[in-house]
Design brief:
By secondary structure, the chain is of the alpha/beta class. The protein has six helices and eight strands. It is globular. It starts with 5 loop residues before the first strand and ends with a helix.
């Protein structure tokens, strides 16, 4: 939708292309102040955090979005432009994957490209607050725990409900 060309070098990373268009459409059509996506995008998240914590990537410089999101086993992950060379070293505008190193970080950066108004270089805080929750490893428990039986967790639904509750009480 943005007109950017994307090198498609991994057939297993097709979901981020669909999500990229959805993020672009939603952010341009509805002009939201906050964009949060929840997706099972990278196996790298399981390597980094296992099946206990969900990795959260946020552009919120003043931590306002993170402070409202940090609930129920979330872990803030780095989202830094220094990683971007891995997705821009391509014949196209972007590459849909970056290889094994920092795969979850570069996926979050890849998706940020498609959120309208995410960057405003003159302001401390981006005009659109953005968070990407990578639930690839936490969507399901492979063993029973005191907190959850084996199987699909649905835990991030509870966390997002808590986020909206906190958001509505602070406005």
């Amino acid at each position: 939708m943005t007109g950017k060309s994307i090198e498609f070098d991994n057939m297993d990373a097709e979901g981020r292309l669909v999500l990229a268009d959805a993020l672009y459409y939603a952010s341009t059509e509805f002009k939201m102040h906050t964009v949060i996506d929840v997706a099972t995008l990278t196996g790298a998240m399981e390597v980094a955090l296992g099946d206990i914590y969900t990795g959260v990537f946020t552009t919120s410089n003043a931590h306002a979005l993170w402070d409202r999101l940090s609930y129920d086993h979330f872990w803030r992950m780095p989202i830094d432009e220094d990683y971007s060379t891995q997705i821009y070293l391509s014949n196209a505008d972007l590459c849909n994957t970056s290889g094994k190193p920092t795969g979850s970080c570069t996926t979050a950066l890849f998706l940020n490209v498609f959120v309208d108004s995410i960057e405003d270089k003159d302001e401390q805080e981006p005009s659109v607050r953005r968070a990407h929750l990578d639930i690839a490893a936490t969507m399901e428990f492979t063993r029973s725990t005191p907190y959850q039986e084996k199987g699909m967790t649905g835990r991030r639904v509870h966390a997002l409900a808590e986020f909206f509750k906190r958001l509505s009480s602070q406005e």
